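chain below, 119 aa
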Amino acid sequence: MMKKDIVGSVHIELNLDRIAGNLDKAQAALNQQIVADSTPYIPFRQGTLRSQVRYPDGMSGGSIEWYAPYAGWWSPPVKYPTGRKLQYHEPGTGAKWFETAKTEHLHDWEELVKRKLVE
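prediction:
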C-alpha cells in the first residue's frame, strides 16, 4: 500500500494490491494460452516435447520452457547425431513453434491480457 500526501491538506491513499493481483493473473493466463496456441506447431514424434513444458519463474512469471532433452535439436542448423537434417512429420510443425503461434495469435494474446487486467 502506498500513501502520498499532496499539498499538505489533501491525502490520497492508493491500494495497488488489486492491480498487482490482476497483473499476476494476466501473466498466468497468457502463459497458459501461449502453450495452448504453440502446441499444434511443436514437432510430434512420440509427443514427449509437447507435454514437457514448465514455467521456471512460476505460473505468473514471464518464462516458458519446453524441456525435453532433445528440444534444442528442433531448431536449425542443429542436426541429429546421424548428420541428417530433421524432418517434420506433421504438417505445420517446425523449429520455430512459438514464433509461428505468435504470428497467428498475438492479437488474441493482447486482448486476453487486456481483459484480465480489468477483471
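Residues 17-38 form the longest helix (22 residues). Confidence is low (pLDDT under 50) at residues 73-80.
thats it, cya
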